[in-house]
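Title: Prediction job returns without error message
Component: structure pipeline
Severity: low
Priority: P3
Assignee: unassigned

Description:
Job completed but the reporter wants confirmation the result is attached to the right record. Sequence as submitted:
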Amino acid sequence: MKYIFLILLFSTLAFARGTSVKGYTKKNGTYVQPHRKSSANSTKLDNYSYQGNVNPYNGKKGYKKWDVL
């Protein structure tokens, strides 16, 4: 039972880490370096680019402002 809990915990943490993005060239010729981004979901609470969040891979603080309802 203890091992099942640990497996679930570590698999959840691995999923929450984010996604690797390969480098690519935009239509305008700009090259985008490979990087990591937060996993896709329906919230901005864990999005690295929004204010109040910090990207754990490069230490940069979020810069996007929250939408006001």
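Comment from assignee: result matches the submitted record. Strands lie at 19-21, 24-25, 31-32, 35-37.
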